[in-house]
Amino acid sequence: MKNLIVLIILIALGAYGCKPKTTGSIATGDAASKVYVAPGSYDEFYSVVSGGFSGQMAIYGIPSGRLFRVIPVFSQDPQSGYGYSEETKPMLMTSHGYVPWDDLHHIALSTTNGTHDGRWAFGNGNNTPRIARIDMTTFRTAEIIELPNSSGNHSSPFITENTEYTIAGTRFSYPPDYDGANPDVSISSYKDNFKGYLSFVGVDKESGMMDLSFQIQIPPLNTDLARGGKGPSHDWFFFSCYNSEKAFTLLEVNASQKDKDFILAVNWKKAEQYVKEGKAKAQKVKYAHNYFDENTQTAVSEIRTDVLVLDPKELKDILYLIPCPKSPHGCDVDPTGQYIVGSGKLAAIIPVFSFEKIQKAIANNDFEAEYDGIKVLKYESCLHGEVKKPGLGPLHTEFDNEGNAYTSFFVSSEIVKWNVKSLEIIDRVPTYYSIGHLSIPGGPTSKPWGKYVIAYNKITKDRYLPTGPELNQSAQLFSIEGDKMKLLLDFPTIGEPHYAEAIPAELIMPNSKKIYKLEENNHPYATKQEKETKVVREGNKVHIYMTAIRSHLVPDNIEGVKIGDEVYFHVTNLEQDWDVPHGFAIKGANNAELLIMPGETQTLKWNPDRVGIFPFYCTDFCSALHQEMQGYIRVSPAGSSVPIIFSTGKTAEVKATTGK
Amino acid sequence: MRKLIYIFCITAITAFFLGCGGNPENAMDVSEDTNVIKSGGQETVADDESQKDVVKVAVSSPDHTTLVAALKHVEYVDDLSNAGPFTVFAPTNAAFDKLPAGTLDDLLKEENKEVLKNILEYHVAVGGYKTEYMQDGQNIGMANGDNIKISMLGDKIVINETVNVIATIAASNGIIYVVDGVLLPPAAK
Predict the structure, then answer these.
(1) Residue B111: phi, psi to the nearest 5?
(2) What is the pLDDT of residues B16-33, one digit of tens each?
(3) Which ranges constitute the DSSP H helices of A220-267?
């Protein structure tokens, strides 16, 4: 049987061999069997992939590359009703009001003692600065916190070793938000008025709830990426930055002037201590904090107004700058916590810094200068060594469990494997084309699971059947077992993946929720039995308490709604069975559908715009009689005397009533 | 081949339950061979969180061992583990005992499989026929193509004027009406 399958695949590949391309013929039958997950079998890893400009996250299986789910995070999702239902609208509230889109770049999977614990996935909103927390039992967005004093939340949402904090650093400096400190100033006053911020968002150990613990105000640098320390460097966080030139126009040229920018080394333990000692300044700002209350199944949005800000110009031992060549992008800490890899986008080398040497340099006051009142360490004093001529345009580095690093190169379109200690290059493979981030299961943790490296490529061009000018981005899976990397598979992705993390399936799968228990549903408009369904008028608001179960909606005949009414369909899915959601949609709704999981209540708001009969129905093929799962609502003119009536299964003719 | 794999899966799952007697979640062990196509039907889905479906309800009832054996014999359990919704009239063991001596043994013979399946399908309707939506004199089309007739005698529901509903059990994918007699399709009468 197995041989038969392999044979079929080989034949298929053979037939495909006529494709006029030499580079594409690397995958072999052996590779095919390595990524073949038979129907009904499970992948070894979940991969949590950022959706980039889709604002979402996607879940893929590795090694098959199969897409399992798209999780709505910062963008409205008409498919699930996320951001459309009354319950989820508050999740997308910000200090700017309702913001239904963002640009989600990076993933951080929660860790305990530096290793994956499978509890939460964090994602950053780059545009209107936010951090989201996804609950990995429901694969839903559980919480979103906005960040004040921030623009371009790019170096985020990376975490400390025990998920004490998820962090954020500002890519775009600008005048701070507080107390009139963001006045009407000229852009050319950048050097005087613009500031950067590093935010430390505390994560509750039990609930995961986020709280903006403190911020560190920094010079107007563009912080780019970051990683928490581990083991010996546990107390530290490292951020890369560019634009030490303080350019505010044509950064392509003006932010590439200097030979070196910086890695920012932050002693967050020390910063935390200063906050406790009252050395932070309280500032008044405005930012939203939104969370989904599982109890009421309704999101809550609140505006917060306080933030504590530390000034490293005064508290000098919380922040040091390490020179790093040519606009560093990736800033990655190896599994031992001893080495920090900086990747200058324009550099011809990869510098590797030693945590031990950094500590010695600090102890010996081995500084070369100050930059805006912040101490700058000597490059050579911090350096473990340089990887020479690795390739062009190094971006990001991940690690395996054998002391090796894998760096992505955008310009030379390749992954280069090198040894962290010896700095020797071991192997290189081309990617198709122009790789951005890369991901090894457990690659950013202190215990990499290894086995694969996945390339997330920016350019797809001719890799798949073309779909017009707009193409998907491609991911490529390589085996890293053995010295040589080996291409196994490529697969299309949604949005524009930036960073992704992969985690063993057994850390997630046993905890995956199947249903919401009806008895735990404390939604104020929940209806737990068909006989409790009702239609209630409160002024011009009409609340319909509706239930859905295979294969009918109760009530399914409703009259007495009038033009000018705001109608709320509160639909409770009475099912207690895995994978039996019901959908709900009504004609003419300026909105989306609801997709209600078993045991859950969701609300669709509807403003009827004309007199007549409107059908509604279940949108998710739930059962053999799904097509029968429908109903009608009658809309009468404003001022009509038609009373509210509702029923299901009533076949006797209801006395005709005509509105005025 | 399909059967072989099916047997393999059943054996593996059985071995698991006997072996560990623990959490069926682990039945979805990812470390098993991912190169073998799994072809178990919906009945084999490991799920101890959801409400029980009509098959699981019947399997867990000591009064329905004959019915369950008959359903398994004609390979009808996967169908009834489907989303449905189903209305199942479930004769008790005592109901089967009321059949003339030897009838059941005859029906369980390999050559009578189709006859038995026809009878069992006469106990299943696709649709959730709740008591409150039943009416006196109502006909319900059953899975085998024949109709049953519902009589409402006060609170009592009687099928085909002979068989009484003695209990109602809600299941995740439908409703089970426990009945005190076996319903015989018109053609088999």
Answers:
(1) -70, -15
(2) 333 333 343 333 444 457
(3) 251-254
Q: Do A578 and B26 touch (CB under 8 A)?
A: no
Q: How many CB pairs under 8 A join A and B?
A: 94
- Residue B39: predicted pLDDT: 78
Task: Note the pLDDT of residue A208.
Answer: 98
Backbone angles phi, psi at A537, to 5 degrees: -95, 130
Q: Which CATH superfamily is domain A526-647 in?
A: Cupredoxins -  blue copper proteins (2.60.40.420)
* Contact at CB, B35 and A506, closer than 8 angstroms: no
- Cα dist from A416 to A332, A411, A571, whole Å: 15, 13, 53
Q: Of the candidates A499, A627, A460, which has an alpha carbon nearest to the alpha carbon of residue A123? A: A499
Which residue from A163, A150, A232, A144 is spatially nearest to A202, judged by alpha carbons?
A163
Q: What is the pLDDT of residues B48-103, one digit of tens each?
A: 999 999 999 999 999 999 999 999 999 999 999 999 999 999 999 999 999 999 99
**8 Å CB contact of B25 and A509:** yes
Cβ distance A59 to A501 under 8 Å?
no
Cβ–Cβ gap B49/A44 under 8 Å? no
Instruction: List the single best residue of A451, A553, A576 to mutate versus B (max B Cβ within 10 A).
Output: A576
Query: What residues of B are in contact with residue A557 (Cβ under 8 Å)?
Result: none
Q: What would the two tokens of residue B184 be?
A: 């015989």
pTM: 0.90
Fold of the CATH domain A43-511: Methylamine Dehydrogenase; Chain H (2.130.10)
Domain spans of chain B, in order of start:
1-40, 49-188
Confidence of residue A653 (pLDDT cuts 50, 70, 90): low
Share of chain A above pLDDT 90, in %: 89
Q: Which of B45, B50, B128 sits opposite A550 (nearest CB)?
A: B128
User: At B188, is the pLDDT very low, low, confident or very high (cuts 50, 70, 90)?
Assistant: low
Strands (DSSP E) found in A574-611 = 582-586, 594-596, 601-606
Distance from CA of B45 to the nearest CA of A (A): 10
B42 reaches A (C-beta below 8 A): no
**Overall average pLDDT of the A101-109 stretch:** 98
* CB environment A284-308: b (16+ within 10 A), e (fewer): ebebbbbbbeeebbbbebeebeebb
The pLDDT tens digits of the residues spanning A442-487 come to 999 999 999 999 999 999 999 999 999 999 999 999 999 988 999 9
Q: List phi, psi (to 5°) of A96.
A: -95, 10
User: What residue ranges do the domains of chain A occupy?
Assistant: 43-511, 526-647
For the cut 50, the answer to whether the pLDDT of residue B12 exceeds it is no
Query: Are residues A442 and A422 in contact, defined by beta-carbon separation less than 8 angstroms?
Result: no
Q: Answer whether B132 touches A (CB < 8 Å).
A: yes
Question: Residues A191, A192, A194, A199: is their CA dihedral positive or negative?
Answer: positive
The H-or-E segment that residue B147 falls in is: strand B147-153
Q: Across the strands, what pairs with A199?
A: A168, A215
Q: What is B49-188's CATH number, 1.10.3470.10, 2.30.180.10, 3.30.70.100, 3.40.980.10? A: 2.30.180.10
Spatial CA neighbour of A495 closest among A24, A35, A54: A54
Pairing verdict, β A93-94 and A374-377:
unpaired
% chain A with pLDDT above 70: 94
Residue with the bigger pLDDT between A255 and A271: it is A271
Half-sphere exposure of A638 (CA within 13 A, CB side): 10
Residue type, A442: G
- State residue A26's pLDDT score: 52
- Band of pLDDT at residue A114, cut at 50, 70 and 90: very high
Is a pLDDT exceeding 90 seen at residue A654? no
Residue A111 region, left (φ>0) first, then alpha (ψ -120 to 50), else beta?
beta
